[in-house]
Each structure stands twice: as structure tokens, then as C-alpha cells.
Amino acid sequence: MTARIPGNDYGVLEPPAPGTWRPRMAVSVVIPARGGQDRLDLTLAALAAQTYPAHLLEVVVVDDGSVPPLRVPGIAPERTRIVRSPQGRRGIASAMETGTAAADGEVIHRMDADIVPYRDHVEAHMRWHHLADYLVVLGRLRFTAAAGPLPAPAQVSGVVADGDAHGLFAEDPEHGHDWIDELVAAHRGLRDAPSPLLHRVHVGATVSSPAALLKEAGGLDTSLVLGEDTELGYRLTQTGAVFVPDAEAVCWHLGTTTAMRRPAEVRRHNGPFIADRVPYRRNLRSDPGRQWLVPYVEVVVDAADASFEDVRASVDGALASTLSDVSVVLTGPWALLDARPPGEEGRTPLDDPLLDLRLVRGQYAGDGRVRLAERVPATSFPAPFRLTCPPGWVPGAESLAMLVEQADGDDEGLLLVALDENETGVVTARLERTSAVARALRVAAEGESLDDVIADLYGATWLDAETWRFRPASRAYPAWASARNREAVRWRAEAERHGREAERARQRVAALKAELRELRAQAAKGDRAAARWKEKAEQRRLEAVALRRERDRSLLRRAARRLRGLAEGGR
Asked: Pfam families this protein is in (predicted)?
């Protein structure tokens, strides 16, 4: 039975210590490379000294247009080969696609061509893959200082084999993946990390995953030239993968990365491409009303046995959500609309038994946000959420945003909104987390309730329709919908008007502050002048006192002389 891991809490697994177990799975280390033969030689020398059994380890180096072509050096694993990228295709993603297609291993261990792994690096990765078939294992990188010549491959191989790789290089004190270390530490080694965070730590320098899982996720996006690892990490999350950062899977990275040397330029370049493909990056999707390649929420409405009016009410309610990156899938027997059963040729359009379906298709055929499908897959991959809404029930403008916020608050896998009750049971709207459904499908036993498994691994909560603003079509439609564009324009105009008023108010406040500063300056100037006059007045007062005292002394002296004169005259 497949191991059942709740959320990302891989702590339920007990990996063996390196050297204490017997491996049985084959691994292919795939290394995309362009030039840099001297560094590749060190990577292969270190791989030749690994503790993982040689007969289970192959290395596929993908030469991505090197001039001169790359070669297998004298010190390399026994099963090392070089394949070349197809003519006209360049980039890490394309090289990895070529290498993965050529690889034989059950596990694909992606490694950069400037990595020097410690002796048990591959074994540390592989011990996890023997425990579950949906793990993504991340190694730990130490970055070397740039100064000094590289050691010889024979030296690297010997030092790694002796278990002394930690002393091969001087560590760069100014560069490292501190941000990854902080995320890992903040979430108990990612064990309690929320689903939207996991893809951020998917760094391709040394990462491994089962070949089947990588294929299920679609492999690297070959249309990307940067940020391809992050985007793949996102899609791996949606397959239900568990991310395991192994602190014992250590390796050296020779020098720094482009993202370290030119971070602002890399962020600027990657922004549009990541925004289009990774809905979790909410800060990159701040533009209102945009359509994106991958929606945040896929809304499913079944039109098979519903009236045109009920379907329209539900669809329009979803599309008018304040959460703008939404797509809608309408399920139904659409192929029947293009078939002409015998005897139908003479029937008038108004008597068409498929009239409601035909009206629905006519209503939304030209809307790029709406797709018609006979059925939907088990999950909404690659979208992170799916809302299944019964036709005739209308989500409020804030409903989708509120539900997603609720789900992300506790990383819940399933939210069930109780809408009504009829003879068949409770009518519900369901918000499903794609990764939770994918995980449940992977580990559920035969005959086991999928909802129970989701609840066990991620949590499930029942909600009420009123609080979460779902209303039946009779109460919600068409009054608000018929004027939704005019309402949007009106509210936008109101917002702009208030914005202009706020700007005028800010300017007035700034002017008042400037005036206040001037008055304070003048007051301060006046205070200084007053202080000077006060000082002068005090000086004059002291001078007057001194003069009075001197005058008084003069009078006393004259009086004394007169008295002495009188006294002398009397003798």
C-alpha cells in the first residue's frame, strides 16, 4: 500500500541512515551542460565516488551545443554517457527533456554541471524514494568562493571517497540560499508548509523525483528559458507531490548563480512568465480583469440536464467574481448537437429536444473563459482549485475569493457548501484543492471514499450557503447580471472619482504641511529674535544696575568727605 502522507508532513516516513540499508531502485543523474568541461569533470569525479551502488546509477550528460563538444573524462561513473540536444533546440528545459527521454532510471536526479556532491549525496536522495513514489527530494547547496584555481578531478574523487568533501573548498560568506534555509526552518523542515509555498524551494541544481511523477507533471516547460524549475515545482505540487529538503544531501556549487549576480534583472524577466503559469503568485496577478494561461479556480457546471436559464445564471455568477482569474468548464453531451438522428430533419428549432444545450453553446461559444467538455478529468490540474457548482445556484461576487481564502487559511483539501436538500440528499457546491484530490487518488484503497481520504490527509469542512453568499437563480438572476458591465463601469468611475478627490486632498494636506513648516520656521526665527532682544535688555538692565551702584557709591563717598570736612572744621 502506498504511504499516506498528510499535507507535506513527510515526518511519518522513517528513512534509513546512509550506509545502513540495501538500495534496489535505479537512478539516472541527468546533467544539462553547455561548455564548462573543467567543472563537469569535477561533477563526474564526485559522482564516481558515490556510495550508491554503481550498477543502479547512470549519468546522462546532455550536451546543449558545446563548442568543442563535451566528452566523458577519465574519472566518471561506469555508466556515463553523453547525448546531444536536437539541432535548433537550446536551453535547460529542452536539454532536460532530451536527457529524461534517454534515461533508464526509475528516479530522475537533476544535477547542474557545476555541482560537486558529497559521497552519500545520491544515496541520501534515494533513501526517500524507496519509501513513497510521489516525493520530490531537494539537496542542500554550499556555494564556493570564486577565488583560486579548481582542484584536479583525481583530488576531488579521492577527497569525496574519503568523506572529506566539506573541506574541498572555501565557502562563500556572502552568497547562499539563506532564503530557502529560512523557509525550511520556519515550517519544521517544510513539514507544515502550506501548499502555495512549496514550489518556491524547487531549485534544479540538485533535485530528484520519480520518473513517472515527472512525466505526470509534464516535465519542464520548454518554452521557458529562465524560471523553469520554479514553474515545474508548481506543477509537481498539483500532482500531489511531497517536498522533502534533506539536510544530509549536501553538495558544493562552484561559484554563484545568475539569480545571485543579477537578481533584479532575473525577477523582471521571469515576472510575466511565472504570473501566467503559477496562480499562487498573487502579487504578480494584480492587473484587474486579466485572463491567464492557468486560472486560479476552474468552475465546473453540468449543463447536461439543466435549463439554459439555470446554467447561464451559474456561469455568469462565476465569471462576475471579484476573483478575476477564473475559467468555466461546461459539461454535457455536446457531440449530440452536431449529429442528426433519423427523422429530426423536419423538426423546427423551437421543438429541438436539445434546445437548452444548443442555447448554452450559443451563449458561450465565443467566450475565451468558457470551455465545453463532455466530461472533466479527476482533477483540475494545473489549476490549484476546482469549484463544482450545481446549475441554478449562483456564487456571489465574493464567494470564490472567500472560499479560496478559507481553504488556504488551514491548507484544507475540500470545502462543501450545503445549498439545499432534496429526495436524493444534500445539494452541495464543492471547492476542491487539486493537490489534495491528486494525493487522495494516489493513496486511496479500492472502494474507499475519496472525500474521506481528502479529509484525512488535508481536512474537509462543511459550510452554509447564506454565509458564503450562494443563492438560487430565482433570487440572484438576471437583475444583477443584466447590468454587471454597467455596474463595473460605474464603480470604476466612482473609484476613479474618489481617487481624484483623495489626490486633491493629499495635495492640500501637503500644502498645509508646507505652510505649517514655514510658520514654524518663522516662529522659530521670531523666537530667536526675541531671545536676542531679551539678552540685550538683560545686558542693559545689568549695566543700569551697575551704573546705579556706581552712582550710589559716588554719593556715599561725597557724603563721607563732607562729614569728615565738618568734623575737621569743628576742631
From this structure: Glycos_transf_2 (PF00535)
